Amino acid sequence: MMDIRFEHSAAETAKMTTGALRAAFLTGCLMVDDEIQLCYSHYDRMITGGARPVQRRLHLEPPAELRATGFLERRELGVINVGGSGQVCAGNDCFSLERLDGLYLGRGLPEVTFQSDDASDPACFYLLSAPAHQSYPSRKVTRAEAQPTETGSSETANARTIYKYIHDQGPQSCQLVMGLTILRNGSVWNTMPAHTHTRRTEVYYYFNLEPDQRVFHFMGAPQETRHLVVANHQAVISPPWSIHAGCGTSHYGFIWGMAGENYTYTDMDVVQTGDLL
User: Fold this and answer.
1) What is the pLDDT of residues 127-176, one digit of tens each?
2) Is 145 helix (H, G, I), strand (E, B) or coil?
3) How many whole angstroms separate alpha carbon 226 and alpha carbon 170?
4) 2.60.120.40, 2.60.120.10, 3.40.50.720, 3.30.420.40: which CATH number matches 3-275?
5) Helices and strands of the chain, counted as H and E runs
6) How many Cβ atoms sit within 10 Å of the Cβ of residue 131?
7) pLDDT (tens digit per residue) in 227-242
8) Given strand 93-97, what is the order of strands in its sheet?
């Protein structure tokens, strides 16, 4: 089973109720013991998912909707582990991923499996996939190799570290761009000033949140903003016309991933805070 989400225009979204917004743009919890959760978006045909192997190895089978013999028959896949250590095996290769290690898997690999090293501290593999027009080599990227960049400040409550895993100066991909951001203690805002990506879709996956904490994710056209209340291990699909920014009730982390026409990480249309409505 794979959750399917269709596209919605900015004008349509502006009239949505809270329930309609959540049904259109917010996933359920992506980390479920011994299951793989998948959500297919018609925005750039991205698939967001999670694999949390505890007692058994999990196989990434192609859902019926893909009409494919293997999940990666026509796709590429980015993986980032936000849990305990584990292994991802693809074709003839196996990759050990510690917490916050990443992995790129190219088109055409016949089989992908996930396994934890310790059932008492299971791995949590976040998955992001996009269509691929050719094959590129698989490549592991450790947290230390992910080009950490310090940005923001404590004065504006957005001091954070950005890590780039799959991008135009890293592992080569067809269109997938992927990384994560960790906020420092005392900081709660991400991605300010906000921006849009009219040439690609972005997905935000939130983690490092305690069960009773939430992130208020702001979305919508810059002059018609809306918000979603997001719990740990949920993801938000951000259409090309929408801003994407968040403020948490505590510090947290999030994985960002993009796919679309433009592969350049810095391609964005900034919206000044004073212009948001």
Assistant:
1) 999 999 999 999 999 999 998 999 989 888 999 999 999 998 888 999 99
2) helix
3) 34
4) 2.60.120.10
5) 2, 23
6) 16
7) 999 999 999 999 999 9
8) 58-59, 112-116, 86-90, 93-97
